Amino acid sequence: MGEVVVSCSMCLLVGRFREEVSLPFAFQFTAGAIAGISEILTMYPLDVAKTRLQLQVGKGGAGQYTSISDVFSKIVKEEGFAALYRGILPPILVEAPKRAIKFAANEQYGPMYLKWLNKDKMDQSTAILTGVTAGLTEAFIVAEPELVKIRLQARENAGKYRGTIDCVKKIYAQEGFLAFFNGLEATLWRHAMWNGGYFGSIFAIRNAMPKAETKKGELGVNFIAGALGGAIGTALNTPADVVKTRIQNHLPEHGPMKYKYYLPGVATILKEEGFTALYKGFLPKVLRLGPGGGVLLVVFDQVTTFMRNNFM
């Protein structure tokens, strides 16, 4: 799923502001995992479309995808409907451990920064700093499954791998263990920028919106804040995502690695393809991570409410 995240300490930012009993870690972890997997299952075909568009080098040509609908149409026609969900297993499998690491990290970062900065409560700058740091932590666990997912999603790799396990085995056998870390540096950039933009903007958006007086109104505020935050985070981190995707899909038979790191990769794309190429796949990405951010917050809110009502 990559960028979309919710944490227990972030509830102060994106969750309810009213007084409530804090949920135990196990409940927070479970709610986050359920919310994350719900978002993956709902929005995953858009992630496949994003990857296919990002891997297209150049400004067009015979057989290239021209739009989201063209991606979906050609995939279903040429590869079958199931191809829209190719590579979904790695992000689902990593969702739970990612949440555990994410929650544990956030439990430390929020209070740590408040203490270091001598602040009584979270504000926007601290929210951004906490989000960026949490994003960097998250990137270390998602980079390797992301590489497997990208290999499975890529058009040119259709038929190369029989599934997730086969993909992992072939990467290890043909490229070595270190190949799984290709794109880690660009992934760090991607997650730092998305999390900083997402959580920082959510803080501002929620403060700017009228205070919700009903449960329904509160859900609406959560969805709007999450969707706008997701869109802002996506606008900030799409160039890093494009570079990361191209790095991770590099195969030995492609020759020397053209893209190695984020900033040099951006410079190469700007020189050869122009600025707009840095935003290839932006529309399916923002359609996923904008509404997806809203879906995530609403599901997290509903699950934690159910837990408080039934287990506390």
From TrEMBL:
Please give, as recorded in its UniProt entry, the membrane topology of this protein.
Answer: Multi-pass membrane protein
An example of a Gene Ontology cellular component annotation for this protein is:
mitochondrial inner membrane
Query: Which keywords does this chain's UniProt record carry?
Result: Membrane, Mitochondrion, Mitochondrion inner membrane, Repeat, Transmembrane, Transmembrane helix, Transport
| InterPro entries referenced in this protein's UniProt entry, alphabetically | MCP_dom_sf, MCP_transmembrane, Mito_2-oxodicarb_carrier
The places in or outside the cell where this protein is found are: Mitochondrion inner membrane
Q: Which residue ranges contain the repeat Solcar?
A: 23-112, 122-208, 217-306
- Superkingdom is Eukaryota
Predominant location category:
mitochondrion
> Record's Pfam families?
Mito_carr
Give the family per the record: Belongs to the mitochondrial carrier (TC 2.A.29) family.
Q: What is this protein called?
A: Mitochondrial 2-oxodicarboxylate carrier
Origin organism is Mycoemilia scoparia
